[in-house]
Amino acid sequence: MNAFSPAIFAFLVDQFGWQISLYALFGCSIMTWIAIELMSRWYARAQARVDGHLVPRA
Questions:
Q1: Is residue 33 assigned to a domain?
Q2: Which candidate in 10, 18, 47, 48 could, as Cys together with 53 as Cys, close a disulfide (CB 3.0–4.6 Å)?
Q3: pLDDT of the chain along its 58 residues, tens only?
Q4: Kindly report the CA angle at 41 between 35 and 46, in degrees rounded to 5?
Q5: Domain annotation covers residue 57
Q6: For position 5, what pLDDT does the model report?
Q7: Does residue 46 belong to any structural domain of this protein?
Q8: How many domains does the chain have?
Q9: Are 45 and 57 in contact (CB under 8 A)?
Q10: Residue 56 within any structural domain of the chain
Q11: Which residues contact 55 (CB under 8 A, 6 or more apart)?
C-alpha cells in the first residue's frame, strides 16, 4: 500500500458505502498477495538460471 490508500479508501466509503469498500479492499489485498507470490517464484527461477541450477515450476 502507498500513502494514498487511506484517502482512496475514504473516497470509496463516501461513494459506495462500507460494505463495498471493504470488499474492494479485500480484493486488492488478495491481488497484491498473488502478485507478490508470482514475483517471488519468478525471481527464484531467474536466480536459479543465473546460478546454473534448475528449479521445478510450482
A1: yes
A2: 48
A3: 578 888 999 999 999 999 999 999 999 999 999 999 999 999 999 988 888 766 566 6
A4: 120
A5: no
A6: 85
A7: yes
A8: 1
A9: yes
A10: no
A11: 44, 45, 48
